[in-house]
From TrEMBL, chains A, B:
Name of this chain's protein: Chloride channel protein ClC-Ka isoform X1
Name of encoding gene: clcnka
Listed GO CC annotations: chloride channel complex; plasma membrane
Topology with respect to the bilayer: Multi-pass membrane protein
Segments passing through the bilayer: 68-87, 107-128, 162-180, 218-240, 252-273, 293-318, 341-360, 404-426
Keyword Repeat: yes
Alphabetized PANTHER family for the sequence: CHLORIDE CHANNEL PROTEIN 2, CHLORIDE CHANNEL PROTEIN CLC-KB
Amino acid sequence: MKSSDRYPGRETDDKSNNQDQENQSETTHNKIPLLSDPWKPCRQPRAIVKGWLLKVRCCLGTVCGMEWYGYAALGILTALLSFLMDLTVAKLLRAHQWLYMKLEGSLLLQFFCWTLYPACLCAFGSSFSHNICPFSTGSGVPEVRTMLTGIEMPHYLSLTHLFTKFLGLICTLAAGSTVFLGKVGPFVHISTMVGGYIHNLCALIQPGEEKAAKEMLVVASAVGVASCFGAPIAGVLFGVEVMSSHFTLKNYCPSFFSSACGALTFCLLSFWSGDGETLQVLFRTNFPTVLPFYPLEILLFAFLGLLCGAVSCCYLFCHRWILRFTKTNPVLIKMLTTEKALYSGMVVFFLASLTFPHSAGQYMASKYTMKQLLTSLLDSSQWSSKSHNASVQLEPLLEWSSSGTPVCFSLAFFLLMKMWMLVLACTLPLPAGYFMPVFIYGAAIGRLLGEAVVYVSSMGVGLGQQWASNLNPGGYALAGAAAYSGAVTHTLSPALLAIELTGQFSHAVPILVSTLLANALARRGHRPSFYDALAISKKLPHLPSLKKACPRLPFTPVGQVLGVKLEQLQRAAGPLEVQRVVNSSSETQIPVVDSHESQILLGFVLRSELLMFLRHCQTESLDQCLNDVCCIHPTSVLLSPYNTVQEAHSILSVVGAQTLFVADKGRLVGLITLPEMKRILEDLAKDI
Amino acid sequence: MKSSDRYPGRETDDKSNNQDQENQSETTHNKIPLLSDPWKPCRQPRAIVKGWLLKVRCCLGTVCGMEWYGYAALGILTALLSFLMDLTVAKLLRAHQWLYMKLEGSLLLQFFCWTLYPACLCAFGSSFSHNICPFSTGSGVPEVRTMLTGIEMPHYLSLTHLFTKFLGLICTLAAGSTVFLGKVGPFVHISTMVGGYIHNLCALIQPGEEKAAKEMLVVASAVGVASCFGAPIAGVLFGVEVMSSHFTLKNYCPSFFSSACGALTFCLLSFWSGDGETLQVLFRTNFPTVLPFYPLEILLFAFLGLLCGAVSCCYLFCHRWILRFTKTNPVLIKMLTTEKALYSGMVVFFLASLTFPHSAGQYMASKYTMKQLLTSLLDSSQWSSKSHNASVQLEPLLEWSSSGTPVCFSLAFFLLMKMWMLVLACTLPLPAGYFMPVFIYGAAIGRLLGEAVVYVSSMGVGLGQQWASNLNPGGYALAGAAAYSGAVTHTLSPALLAIELTGQFSHAVPILVSTLLANALARRGHRPSFYDALAISKKLPHLPSLKKACPRLPFTPVGQVLGVKLEQLQRAAGPLEVQRVVNSSSETQIPVVDSHESQILLGFVLRSELLMFLRHCQTESLDQCLNDVCCIHPTSVLLSPYNTVQEAHSILSVVGAQTLFVADKGRLVGLITLPEMKRILEDLAKDI
């Protein structure tokens, strides 16, 4: 509080960095519609409603700050959206399955039903999102990460964007396991958009206590994961990890609170809509509780982690290659700029014809939806030993070896095909998440290893026959899912997410071991993660991603990248000089130097004070100088031109200063604000 | 890397902030004993061993950086210590129980056995720790939190301290549930001491790549919790929470890795020493998996959270009162400074005579150890309904209603008595943790509520009779434990700890809800947490705690608290002035101003360069000035005297700058380093 008394510029910067100071009094006025809008009709009823609303606000305010209601609303709203989306997608998927079953008998009609339904959905989704909001394609996580470093990207927080992303994502998800894309990434983005909207609402209700939108965005990123899966703690860990260098602990409790609200709402909605007797995890498993795993199996889990790490490196390489390819191949560039719907339709048709259950799809369990795929892979019974015994057919096994092929072949074929199909699907211009497919892919890797271990053990090799009957391939699938998705995204929260999704705490240690080792392998040599690659490809001003592309880049001295010559005032400036500066500069803080010759930085004056000074001079027609009338505020933190971009960035985003002056030996050199930092980073990204 | 090229002072500051620059070359030389010690005997074998060691180092270095081996060693060592301690304490407790049983028949002998055994242990522990290392009493968490803000407290990281704390803690724990103190806090401290030692070792092996000790300490604080309970993720969350304002994400992966190593080692050791077939959680529970709780019970869990929050406020008030009382009461002051052993013995004798199973102890299940108490409280069967039916006696119930009193009476009596007994036990000058007792106390609150709900429901009131049989009071106990311990420490990680301790993921949502609400109530009005109160009472230089005691304190401008007049050089300084400054100042970075009149800060020179300059002048007998010979390094970040202590503190601890110059309008005013910050905070703490 006190600091803002001394640095009035800091507070005003929050809300009006991009608008002129002179408009500010009107803006503030407009922001309180509850209090004054005299020209509107029905004054009497409006006044009564206003009075009641103010009373409600007072009552709510006594319990806790208005922002906490915002956090609760954020959690509940996001969970509601998530539940609605799940419901719609389930209905659309069931409609597809119903149609496909009805057409039983005619192979051609079944083929067209199988391929055209997702192709049309994706073409529609692609065209829709392209026309309404072209930014809405892709995951959204790279953009969210960029916004969380403090850089403003207003396009990515608009309500139109929210609407487009929501509908587009439904189309993508309804295309099912054919397209093999997920929900998490866009949902994190949707959650931040809801967060941004609620932040504006809070600012409207309680105009005095404006807080930086960034806090709400950090909370929202945690809520996105939490309400997508009903996994509050993994959500918070994701929120911690998604921050680039420092996690502000002020956001920790709000994140937990909002995530808990979101997860609770999501679980309650699922419970009320379903037939269970209690709140359940999303993917119920039936792991044995008495002997979940032998301690020596830890070594196998460690090997699984390394395997997942290695496969993830291969996948990330292919992904980076296709990102480059879509940027350089002229045919693809043309297709992806003008004929998005056609491209989406064609690619999805191609993918769907491959997964058609009467063609290669029979070896890939393609009849399963994404959720069924994961549930089947996490099944705790041993398929490879059961498939010998034809009389005992297990439900999940039914689909994986429907063509009579061995399960291991099906799994290997699934892994081989889905690798490049997923890479291809990543080029689709649709709102789509890339986490869930990777999670399922990892589960398949784990399952394959698990089944192989069971097979080898039942032969009497290695762990021995007496162990074989107690081995649980589902545990390997779970560990594999966490390890592979963690390796692809370079995060550790998937380990906790895997636990929260299944409620299987017994496997916590093996999951953690595999995830850590997979991450260690994937992060070697400072390779970019999946999201880093997307950010680099989109040239987003996200410093940690740019660092992956060019390690020396964050160490560029700020002196080298400072922008155009800075407008400044000397202490003895008269009205003419002040008028010139006010006209030519749009910054809210104008630096004041001792004299134009010495350039010794004294501090800054606020734009509003300069305007007052000008008005004062006009009315009183006096020829006073700046020093006599205006208060020169001391600068907060001063950088030298030899400070690196990284240091400037972390001071801006961590210390919360809005404007940093750069001075060399006391002489003013330049000024860095968040918009200026955005420009600097965008310039640096261009050169990569 | 590049930044350190430009600011050589920054790197040297890490290792030699307290020692003179001139000794540095010798110091570095001494730090590489592997390479050169020509005067020692057995040169030939030593050379061979050296060669092998260097080869091993090279091999290890190719896999990953040396610090990762350090993190692994930290986890494994801490887990080993934790396991050893558990083993010793279990043996000592069994010896006590055996003796007590052998004396069956003679009430007086039994009384003396019951009271004198813990009293003697505590008196010994108190006297031992007082004589060897007087700082080793108490929890250690407040000191660790202070060290994690970057402030050096070398006394708290010595090996003697580690040894004293370890032995003292064994004495405290062996006194059992009579003294009712725990292990976590001191173990976090022990872990940081091990971390500090391993950090020194790493620096010795790889002298080129020294890293700040702070990183290892952050990791160690997570490992402490993880290897105390085998709970890796809760450990990491504790590590995040224990940081005052910003968690550096660079420490996130190491924390996870080291915690996983610690937890895995701890689980494996427990497995090998026990008779289980697999790795188990510390407190096995038998909660029903089909219907863990009804969704409507969430409301009861929320009420439990609020109840725990309210009780925690009361407890914290009593705790703060007794802390003040021990500081102001002259008798206690005298006792606690000179007669620590006597005081400990007397208090423990008093506590033990109260818990004697033939006196009030029979209503408090005092025969149970801490571990048995928690296990009994987490039992999922309903005591209140079972105790009506005398023929079915449950094992945990046996002790809680051994005197034939109703269970609810026993629980209420336990809560009432343990409240003040725990407050009294907190004054004991012993190495002791205060988390576990609080955790058990919370479990008792939850159990009491759970049993009450079962009783009321079985009467047909509220939730109804058909629900009553499915209610699980153990779930309430678990949620209560997390909520109460979270409220007392103002943290949320106990929620995850409760899950990891019991493996009961089914209760994740209720636990989270209660913990959040309890925290919300406990944190209202910026009351200090348990650890804050300890830090304030000990006058530690920990800014967030001081803020709780005096909210305006962190907003003190640095200009007001800057120390003595700063030594500075002018650009044209000759050898005489340089000699004077080198003699009078001990800083490694000496500021250089334009001239003593203008005081415009140009940058700084390193002490080592000044010494070189002097040598240069002496040998060549030239009268050169500073500007001609030395390189004036630009200052990194410059503060103004109007910046607050909080801002300076966060820049120091977050941005990683080691020396901050303070300048007003280009003129040098002062300099802030971490030791200087420590002095400032200690001065500020004095005034509270």
